[in-house]
């Protein structure tokens, strides 16, 4: 760790072990050699309760018990059994555990906010306690109120995962609350627990989010991926080039999640051109990819449907509630461009469910996919784009995730169409809750609208649920025509949501216009006004006018975790045609959100060879 701003993410490499032996008076911790705030540990001759037994050996150091009776031989004196919890403060590097007992664990990061959400909070315990029992009696609390934006799962018999589905509140004390339950009010016996989180997008395990770049044109279309550390200077972690002709390996890429449970973010890559456009998706262990000694042992998913372009799009999320991320994959070329979408289990890579097209021929169902839990049932909904071929209507479909995964029911929450030839749904993104109604919204890119000028629409999540509001959050699309007046600017070719770059609690809408300014490109950041009647421009970031030729800046966009210690996410932007090789830029999210001069972080990353299309896809783990 190079800076204090990444304090929260230290937990993956710090194991905090404590015992909860039916005792609320004595707490045992893995010794760090330091007391609160760096104070020395208790003196060797300390006797806090004055019972004549030194604290170093006393089985109940807070209550006088010179007899040291321990009837159940659990290491806790009878005098302490059932007593009120004691507050204990332990400092482990920069993370403070303020209190632990049989009922709750308090976690506070006092000197730094929590700018991003962890992929998961994991509690590991002995097999004596059934995870399913624990799961029904655990909640994440903030200021004595239950946090509802979480899902709970049991990835293994002895592990419970708490997965936040929204960003955590900065500078806040979160509590993991264990309610008592019949027959096991205090975790019978001595159970060892560990608490840890994992940084999203951290491939090499240094607690810093990393940068993944796809270059599907490299090697004359075989394609390649390049993964860089998010640490200072963006050193290359590893590159890998496909050996299959015209595979377009790297068209889509994700490093958002730890799929195999080893504590490292794993890499999922789409190769829609593989095997004469049948397509494939390839999984790499982040640990193996980041360490040069192990040979790579990828797992590939290849349905083998001719021309399906399987892997053109994808998303990663836990769909079946087992605590492990699953993979949602689009195949827009399936059945003469009717399209299809598949959900694969992240542990076995077996097919969970498939949606074999809802569109007509040439609608390209599955060209884009996004996921977010709109109805709040704990299972993400699947949003699918059908941008269609030229001259055809385009659509998006929202499928209710829970009944689809549990029993295969293709319950459509929403079918929404665009105009002919507009490519409505070409890009999709979960927006977060933009209008404050506690329902996630959707960003929809329509780059073919207005003769290629393009536009961006915001689909109100409440419309999806009950049709009580108009589909579009405001009456007008977002069209920054004054800044890019000549088609094809292609506003909305790429879209990103869920950020809060200016810290006002309202997620922004970020989108690219790679055709802007004679194909140099630009990105735009918009925000809903206070009256919730219109979206207002927050930032216009064009490619420098000194750069010549076709650049296509803004063809791809991704958020990544805070790497410059300013407590705000950063933005990765792809420019796949710059200098005929492609480039990728990283910008300070805070500088883009608060106005003033945009600040780039480090030097731009450049493609290795002509035609590489380096930056066609980018991902920073968000």
Estimated structural class: mainly beta
Major beta-sheet overview: 6 strands, antiparallel
DSSP summary: helix tally: 9
Rounded radius of gyration (Å): 26 Å
Q: What is the mean predicted local confidence, pLDDT?
A: 78
Instruction: Work out the helicity level.
Output: under 10%
Q: Order of strands across the biggest sheet? A: 2-3-4-10-6-7
> Which of globular, elongated, flat, extended, rod-shaped describes the shape?
globular
| Strand content bin | 25-35%
**Low-confidence blocks of residues:** 1-43, 82-104, 108-116, 181-196
Give the end-to-end Cα distance, rounded to a whole number of Å: 20 Å
- Kindly report the oligomeric state of this protein: single chain
Provide structural commentary.
- There is one protein chain.
- With 622 residues, the protein is mainly beta.
- 7% of the residues lie in helices and 31% in strands.
- It is built from nine helices and 38 strands.
- A six-stranded antiparallel beta sheet has the order 2-3-4-10-6-7, with no helix packed on it. A five-stranded antiparallel beta sheet has the order 1-11-5-9-8.
- The longest helix has 7 residues, at 401-407.
- The radius of gyration is 26 Å and the shape is globular.
How would you summarize the topology of this molecule?
Blueprint: E1 16-19, E2 90-92, E3 95-100, E4 104-108, E5 121-124, H1 131-135, E6 138-142, E7 145-146, E8 150-156, E9 159-164, E10 173-178, E11 192-197, E12 211-215, E13 224-228, E14 236-241, E15 252-254, E16 267-271, H2 274-277, E17 280-284, H3 286-290, E18 299-301, E19 313-317, E20 326-331, H4 334-337, E21 340-344, E22 351-355, E23 368-372, E24 381-386, E25 395-399, H5 401-407, E26 412-417, E27 427-432, E28 441-446, H6 449-452, E29 455-459, H7 461-466, E30 494-497, E31 509-513, H8 516-519, E32 522-528, E33 535-542, E34 556-560, E35 570-575, E36 583-587, H9 589-594, E37 605-606, E38 617-619
Antiparallel strand pairs: 1-11, 2-3, 3-4, 4-10, 5-9, 5-11, 6-7, 6-10, 8-9, 12-13, 12-38, 13-14, 15-16, 16-17, 17-18, 19-20, 20-21, 21-22, 23-24, 24-25, 25-26, 27-28, 28-29, 30-31, 31-32, 32-33, 34-35, 35-36, 36-37
């Amino acid at each position: 760790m190079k800076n204090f701003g990444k304090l929260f993410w230290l937990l993956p490499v710090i194991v905090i072990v404590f015992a909860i032996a039916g005792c609320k008076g004595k707490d045992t911790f893995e010794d760090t050699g330091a007391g609160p705030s760096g104070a020395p540990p208790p003196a060797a001759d300390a006797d806090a309760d004055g019972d004549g037994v030194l604290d170093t050996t006393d089985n109940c150091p807070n209550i006088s018990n010179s007899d040291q009776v321990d009837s159940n031989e659990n290491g806790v004196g009878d005098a302490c059994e059932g007593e009120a919890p004691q507050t204990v403060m332990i400092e482990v590097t920069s993370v403070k555990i303020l209190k632990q007992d049989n009922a709750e664990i308090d976690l506070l990061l006092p000197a730094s906010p929590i700018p991003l959400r962890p992929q998961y909070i994991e509690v590991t315990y002995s097999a004596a306690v059934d995870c399913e029992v624990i799961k029904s009696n655990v909640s994440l609390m903030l200021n004595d109120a239950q946090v509802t934006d979480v899902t709970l799962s049991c990835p293994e018999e002895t592990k419970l995962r708490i997965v936040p589905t929204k960003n955590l509140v900065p500078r806040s004390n979160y509590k993991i609350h264990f309610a008592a339950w019949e027959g096991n009010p205090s975790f019978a016996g001595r159970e060892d627990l560990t608490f840890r989180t994992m940084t999203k997008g951290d491939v090499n395990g240094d607690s810093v989010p990393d940068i993944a770049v796809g270059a599907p044109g490299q090697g004359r279309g075989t394609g390649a991926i390049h993964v860089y550390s998010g640490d200072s200077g963006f050193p290359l972690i590893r590159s890998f080039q496909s050996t299959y002709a015209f595979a377009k390996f790297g068209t889509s890429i994700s490093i958002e999640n730890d799929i195999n449970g080893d504590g490292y973010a794993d890499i999922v890559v789409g190769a829609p051109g593989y095997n004469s456009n049948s397509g494939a998706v390839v999984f790499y262990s982040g640990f193996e990819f980041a360490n040069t000694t192990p040979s790579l042992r990828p797992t590939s998913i290849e349905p083998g449907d001719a021309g399906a372009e399987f892997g053109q799009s994808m998303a990663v999320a836990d769909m079946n509630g087992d605590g492990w991320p699953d993979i949602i994959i689009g195949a827009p070329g399936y059945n003469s461009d009717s399209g299809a979408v598949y959900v694969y289990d992240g542990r076995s890579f077996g097919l969970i469910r498939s949606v074999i097209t809802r569109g007509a021929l040439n609608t390209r169902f599955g060209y884009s996919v996004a996921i977010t839990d709109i109805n709040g049932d704990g299972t993400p909904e699947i949003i699918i784009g059908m941008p269609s071929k030229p001259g055809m209507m385009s659509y998006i479909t929202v499928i209710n995730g829970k009944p689809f995964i549990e029993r295969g029911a293709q319950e459509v929450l929403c079918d929404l169409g665009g105009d002919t030839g507009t490519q409505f749904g070409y890009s999709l993104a979960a927006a977060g809750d933009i209008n404050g109604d506690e329902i996630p919204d959707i960003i929809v890119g329509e780059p073919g609208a207005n003769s290629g000028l393009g536009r961006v629409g915001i689909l109100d999540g409440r419309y999806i649920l009950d049709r009580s509001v108009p589909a579009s959050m405001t009456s007008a699309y977002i069209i920054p025509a004054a800044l890019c007046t000549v088609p094809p600017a292609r506003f909305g070719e790429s879209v990103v949501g869920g950020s809060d770059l200016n810290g006002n609690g309202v997620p922004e809408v970020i989108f690219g216009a790679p055709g802007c300014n004679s194909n140099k490109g630009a990105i735009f950041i918009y925000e809903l006004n206070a009256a919730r009647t219109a979206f207002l421009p927050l930032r216009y970031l064009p490619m420098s006018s000194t750069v010549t030729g076709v650049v296509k800046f803004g063809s791809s966009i991704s958020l990544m975790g805070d790497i410059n210690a300013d407590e705000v996410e950063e933005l990765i932007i792809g420019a796949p045609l710059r200098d005929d090789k492609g480039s990728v830029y990283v910008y300070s999210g805070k500088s883009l959100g608060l106005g003033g001069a945009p600040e780039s972080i480090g030097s731009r990353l450049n493609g290795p060879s002509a035609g590489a299309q380096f930056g066609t896809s980018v991902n920073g783990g968000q």
